[in-house]
């Protein structure tokens, strides 16, 4: 856009200069050649930026950059939404199976093909035994079909087996 503004500015300045020159030239024999010179100058001013290749419209680059930013933002929002939905689904699934959970953490990544991959699920609660932890892992892997690492820890953060 700055290139276009520069072209318009130089065109206007040239118009003013040509106008002043045409006012100063006396009427009569110099009037006809002056009109021709004015026309040629105006034509040259209009064509020069195109011939030089100075016009650099970055509309395509700006659109491409904006599109990439929008895609990144939408992927981040989709990732956050997917994480919260997965946490809610796990909490409901465990609640239906009679298991109370204090904290659920779902860690996701975006792959190269822009698909969302669950990398780890972390669950903490007051589990009484190792078997109860294994039951939680099995429920999540079987019911949700998750291939991610499922880490089940006691509420204090003690991991008695993954």
Q: Could you walk me through the main structural features you see in this protein, from its secondary elements to its overall organization?
A:
The chain is α+β, with helices and mostly antiparallel strands. It folds into two domains: 2-57; 80-154, 2-Layer Sandwich (GMP Synthetase, Chain A, domain 3), CATH 3.30.300. 60% of the residues lie in helices and 15% in strands. The protein is built from four helices and three strands, in the order H-H-H-E-E-H-E. The protein has helices at 2-24, 31-52, 59-96, 130-144, and strands at residues 103-110, 116-125, 149-154. It has a three-stranded mixed beta sheet with strand order 1-2-3, covered by helices on one side. Helix 4 links the parallel strand 2 (116-125) and strand 3 (149-154). Helix 1 (2-24) runs antiparallel to helix 2 (31-52). The relative contact order is 0.08. The mean pLDDT is 80.
Order of helices and strands: HHHEEHE
Q: Structurally, how many domains make up the residues?
A: 2
Structural class by SSE content: alpha+beta
Widest sheet, order of strands = 1-2-3
Task: Compute the average pLDDT.
Answer: 80
CATH-defined topology of the largest domain: GMP Synthetase, Chain A, domain 3
The stretches of 5 or more residues where confidence is low (pLDDT under 50) are none
Instruction: Determine the number of helices (DSSP H or I, runs of at least 4 residues).
Output: 4
State the share of residues found in helices, binned by percent. Answer: 55-70%
Overall strand count: 3
Q: How far apart lie the N and C ends?
A: 59 Å
Biggest sheet, in brief? 3 strands, mixed
**Oligomerization state of this entry?**
single chain
3D shape: rod-shaped
Strand content: 5-15%
CATH A-level architecture of the largest domain = 2-Layer Sandwich
Q: What is the rounded Rg?
A: 36 Å
């Amino acid at each position: 856009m700055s290139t276009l503004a520069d072209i318009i500015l130089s065109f206007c300045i040239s118009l003013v200069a040509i106008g002043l020159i045409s006012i100063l030239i006396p009427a009569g024999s110099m009037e006809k050649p002056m009109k021709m010179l004015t026309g040629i100058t105006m034509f040259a001013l209009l064509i020069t930026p195109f011939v030089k290749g100075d016009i650099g419209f970055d509309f395509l680059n700006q659109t491409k950059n904006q599109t990439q930013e929008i895609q990144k933002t939408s992927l981040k929002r989709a990732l956050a939404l997917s994480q919260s939905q997965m946490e809610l689904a796990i909490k409901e699934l465990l609640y239906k199976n009679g298991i109370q959970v204090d904290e659920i953490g779902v860690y996701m990544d975006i792959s190269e093909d822009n698909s969302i991959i669950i990398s780890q699920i972390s669950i903490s609660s007051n589990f009484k035994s190792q078997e109860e932890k294994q039951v939680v892992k099995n429920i999540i892997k079987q019911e949700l079909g998750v291939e991610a690492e499922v880490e089940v820890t006691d509420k204090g953060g003690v991991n008695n087996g993954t």
